[in-house]
Structure formats: C-alpha cells, structure tokens
Amino acid sequence: MKNIHRIAAAAIAFAAAQGEALAQAAFPRAPTIPLACSLANLTPVEQKLADATAYLVPKTFVTINRNGSYNIQTSLLDGLAGLDANDNPIVHPFDPDSQFYGGPSIGSSAYGGRGRTAVLIGSNLFVSAAHTFGFDPANFYVVFLPTDFGCSLSSLSSVPADLVYDPAGASTLPINTLSSGRNADYIAFRVDRVVTGRKPVKLRRSDAPRFDDPLVLIGHPMWSGKRVERGGHVFGIAPPGSIIAGRYRFEGLHPFEGSSGSAIYNLKDEVIETVISSNINGSLYYHLDAYNNQTVYDASNFGHSLQAYGDTNANAISVSDLIPRMEVSVTPITDVLHVAPLGGTLSQTVSSYNILGGLGSNQYEVIAPPAPASDAPTLTSNIPPGDRVTGLFNPHVLDLTAGIANVSSCGIWDYTYNVRDRYNEQNNYLRHRFEIGVEEVSISPLANTDILDLGTPYAQGNSYTVTNPRPTVTQLIVRVLETNGNGVLPNHWLRVNGATVLPVTLQAAGTPGDSVTLNLDVTTPPTSQASSQLRVDFVNPACTIQAWEDLVRVVNVTTGTQVFDDEASGNDLVKPTSTTYGTPETFSFDLSAESGLCVSDVDVAVDFFDSEFNTIYSSPPEATPLLKMVLRAPSGTAHTLWEGQATPSQSYVSRHLIEAFGMEFPSKRFTLDDQSTPPASTLLSGFNGEDVEGVWQLDVSRSGTAQEIAPLRAELKLSAAGCP
Fold it and tell me: Taking every pair of C-alpha atoms in the chain, what is the biggest distance, in angstroms?
C-alpha cells in the first residue's frame, strides 16, 4: 500500500477540480457555445449589465486628440505572442476559422493590450480583477467602448470624452484584495467623476446562489468589443481542501483572455456573484496544423468539461465588506421555503430583513405581490407599499408574516416582495414559496439494478430505500411490472419484500417510519435476459411534485453471465530491472463455487488511476504500449492478451469514477473483449470451453522507465453454460 496515499491525494485534487458532476459512465463533454457578438435584443437586466461593463485600456495605447476626444490603438487580431521550443519570441497565428480572427483588438501587438473588463458598481466605483499585487488602476483609462451590432468594434480613433474616465483623478486609493491563492483576485477603485447615463449593478452581499441559478457573462474577450455569453448556470462552490477552494463553479460560460474582471451575473437575484480571475490555468486553446507545420490558436473548436473553462474568484461576499456599498441593501437575500402538512402549522411564520441605505442611495420602495385568492396562503408586510427613505446607519426592519390558515387543499404558491432601490433602479427580490400538503419521496440509489449471475441460486441483497423528506404522511403503492419487450407478463420472478404489490405508508420526516427498505428477491426468470420495472406510485398523485420517471427503477437480470472483480494491492506497477517486464500485479477471481459450467465468452477490464490532473502518473491510452496482460484459467491454461501494442482505438479506453480502497477514484478503464479483437498473440476466445470452477488470475505488468502506472481494480466478465 506504499503509494495509495499519494494516489488518494491526487484523486481528491482531481475530483475537486472536476466537481460533483463526474459520472459513473464516460465523462460527458458539453457542446461548444459560441460567443454572441451582437448586443441587440438584450433583456432589460442584460442591457443594464452591458451598459455598466467597461474596458480597462492601458494608457500606453491611448492618445488625446486636439478636440478632446481619445484615440485608442487597435490591431487586427490574427495571432498571439508566444515562445518557440528555444524560448525565442514568436507569434502563434490564429486559425482563420476562429471567431476572433481578423477582428480589431485593443493594443498594437499580437498579444493585444493586455487590458481587461471592469464593471460599474457605484456612482464612480468599479470592480475588476487585479492579477498582481499593487495593481494601479491609474495606469489605465476606463472606457465604455462604442459598439455596433456586428462582431467588430466601431472606430476608436475619436472616442468621445464622456465615455472615458480616469482613475488617476479619483479621490480615494484603489482597494486591492488580491490574495496569494488568487481566490480574492479583486480590485475596486474610483474614477475621476460620476459616471453618467448608466446605472451601477450590485455585488451579492448576503446568502448564496442556488444550484442552477441562471448566469450571464458580458465582457471584452480577446480585447475586443463587448460580447454576451448566455446560458450559464451555477454549478456549486469548490470545496475546502481543493486546489480552487472557495471559487464559484459555473457551466456554459467561456471566458477568454481579456475577459478578466467580467462579472458572472446572476439573472435570478440580479447580482454579481463573482468576477473572472483567468481562463483555466492561464492556458490558451491551441492545435497543431500539421499541413502548415505550425501551432495555431483556435477559439472556435475547443472542448470543455462540464464546469466550463475559467477561474473565478471566491464569491463576492468574501470581499464585500472591503468594497464600499453605493446601493440600498436588503439582508439577507435568501429564498424562504414554507413547508407544512395540510391543516398543520408553519415552523417559521415571520421573516425579518434589514433595509440599509448606501453611500449613494437611500430611497426605496416596497412592492407587494398581487393579493392572493381566498384559499391561498397569506404573506403580509409591516411596511406598507410606497416610497421610504433609510439611512446608512439606521436600517429599517421589514417583517414578512406568512400564514396558511385559509389553505383548504394541497398546493404550491410563489410570492415575491420586491424592495426596489429607487435611485439605482436595483431590485432586491424577497422570494417565498409555500408547499402545503405536498408529497415527495427520495429513492436511493438513483441507478437501475443490473443483476448478472452464472446461474441459480441468484445473488440476493439488492435493495432500494424510499424516504419521506416532508412533514406530510405519504401513502404509496410499490409494484413490480415485468415485460418481455412485446407486452406485459405476469409478475412471477421478481419480488419486493416478498410481494409483487406492496402498500407503504411513510410517516412525517424525522419520525419513526419515515423510510422503508425495498428488498429485491429474484426467482428463476422466464428467459436468459429479463426486465422488470419497480414502480413507486402515490395513492394521492394530485399532491405530488415528482415526475413519473423519477419513481421508476428498472431491474435487469441476465443469466449465464457474471462480473467478478478484485482490487489492486495499492502499489504502482513495478518497473523492470533485468527483465523486459517488471513484477506483475496479480488480480484473483474466485469461482470455486461455480461447478458444471464451461466458458462461452470472457472479457477483461482494468481500471488505472486517471492521470489527467497529476503528472506523476501515466494511464491508458498513453501507458498501453508499456503494458502486458496475461490471463490464467484454473486449469493452468494461460493466454497473453496484450503485450506492448499501441492502442489502436479509443474504444478500448473509457473514463469512470470508481470506488476502490474505500474511496472514489477517477479512472481510465482499459477493456479487452472479442468484439474489439485485441491485436495480441492469442485472443480471449482461446478460453472458450474451459472449466469455470476454480481461481482465475490476471497478471498486469509494465515495461519502460516512464511515469508511474497505478492499477486500481480489475474485472473478469465471464459467460458460461453447461459443459458438453
């Protein structure tokens, strides 16, 4: 077990970087979403963010014209500065099909002006990303670049002075909150005068976003005009201990160089959640153009993981106390969920909020939702609708009181009180949801059940747990329904707790009887392959909020086939010394209980630690030219399945998240079967006809002096029938 701790540490870092979405099956790849060039057809909220988004232009690229306007240098973006193999400066040309190719970019070099995006958050206050300690915004102009509705900038030879602001003339010093871990790569600073004609947007200053909240990104990627990225959503916050701890995770948004400082903006709560710190690891998207023998930058054809490329800062709350607040603030901004059984009582009837004025605004309006129907919940305020004035140090207390005495039937109601900042036209949505008498269950595990067994007696022990998370007593009918693909068959081979139809009553959450375990028992199925549906139905479906598909699990049984597995010892594969291949890792599969059966087909799979986020290790397909695999039957018959071949097809390798050594590991699974016909000296079909009974062994060894190779687990999938 000498290397298991190192492997485990690498696995934890990998999992943290990838987030909660690592799948049991192959890692999915989201489609590329091109940046929208146009700023046309924006929603009012998006338009406000676009109006508040500016460019930090290095002053070295700006001159002042005689008439007081500003001339900003641009260059056609067709390459990026870089280094060759000998560290000599070169330019990496763009792929002509890239979405930024040939467009104007701020600055006079191939690498653009190295400017960034800034966002207006107060009357003359901006937030951006610093990237360096001691960042001085006085070296930049803040420019609201004029744009057209195409993919290019309008002429920047005569930018009106009222679009250009100078931090050097500001009365206060910048607030640079950069931390060594780059989790707080923020810079807040003032400019020389109040920004006119634009409304500031606000940072989140309380609570947190909800999973799947909609996001939008507007900035200046590749130092170009404003571009809009729609379709993003909140994916979570990187957990403690990870290499990006505290940073927001998002899907569907694609920052580039120049996007630094752009707001990740929550369209639901209308707040800045965080700002872009960098694109992932500061990397760019290159591919080799073999025909022209050059490396090209391709911004249109990159792939990305579920979390999308890009580093964000930690959430804005982490630095909100350091950044002056200009707007009226309501705390806490959080969704309130009222859950109760029909005829019951609410655990929380009053929600209190503090309304506090800002440095630049103190007038607000309370906007109540429409009056509810007579049989609906009530939500009333201690502050009547209309305009109010609050100060910076004397908050008003807003109490919203909820009641459900009038509710006569189960249902869901959504109410929203809005505290609107009158001066800045900013909304503070106080959302309340009522779920009264609603029924819901959770069924774990989420997966269907696949039972593979060589023959009777069939493996037992498969089960599901059904839990009631609500205070409403829930009545269910659990049933099994078998099919043969052409219609319904009688229930006769699958049982749940010994029955084919099972009434279940779940008590209120947190009380005895709020869950039930459903044990699956398999008798002899009608064919070698059979399926059944395990269905959970509500007796009162009108009061449920779940889709039918969430309440169904499929149980598949295949006879004559079984998967056997064995974990590795925890060591890396031994490198050879005096031999071609080192000492093998031996996996054992005990089939001593199987008698009277002979092999009809056998497949082999080995999981190796996925090396993507750890350069110490190598894994398939890179490691396959170093591997040797030998399978040995109980009779002593042995066949070499693999010996140093290069992997001919990616179909041999798939990515998984597996459990080994009591924890989860990212793995690359190397699978050999007769369908893919491994190019080895002997095929797996050489074991057909062998007696199954006894201990099977798989030896995995390696050659070469390259990186470490860490096997995690091996599987032997064996099909058998009666011996002739």
Answer: 100
Element (H, E) at 51: helix 44-52
Distance CA 608, CA 665 (A): 9
State how far the Cα of 659 lies from the Cα of 680, in Å rounded to an integer.
30
How far apart, in whole angstroms, are the C-alpha atoms of residue 230 and residue 39? Answer: 12
d(CA 414, CA 526): 50
φ, ψ of residue 280 to 5 degrees: the values are -55, 120
3-state secondary structure (DSSP) of residue 250: strand
User: Which residues on adjacent β-strands are paired with residue 505?
Assistant: 475
| Measured torsion, CA atoms of residues 210, 211, 212, 217, in degrees rounded to the nearest 10 | 70
Q: Nearest Cα to 272, choosing from 314, 330, 322, 335?
A: 314
What b-and-e string marks burial along 368-382, b requiring 16 or more CB atoms within 10 Å of the CB?
beeeeeeebbbbebe
Number of Cβ atoms within 10 Å of the Cβ of 36: 17
Q: Tokens standing for 585? A: 């890792």
User: Residue 263 class from Cβ within 10 Å (0-12 exposed, 13-18 middle, 19+ buried)?
Assistant: buried
Q: What are the pLDDT digits (tens) for 205-260?
A: 888 888 889 999 998 887 888 888 888 888 777 766 665 666 777 777 777 778 88
What's the rounded Cα separation, in Å, for the pair 523 and 417? 58
How would you list the strands of the sheet with 350-356, edge to edge?
329-331, 350-356, 396-403, 378-381
For residue 355, give Cα distances in angstroms to 267, 295, 328, 363, 499.
Answer: 22, 56, 7, 10, 59
- Write out pLDDT tens, residues 484-515: 555 566 667 889 999 989 999 999 999 999 99
| Contact status, residue 653 vs residue 670, Cβ threshold 8 Å | yes
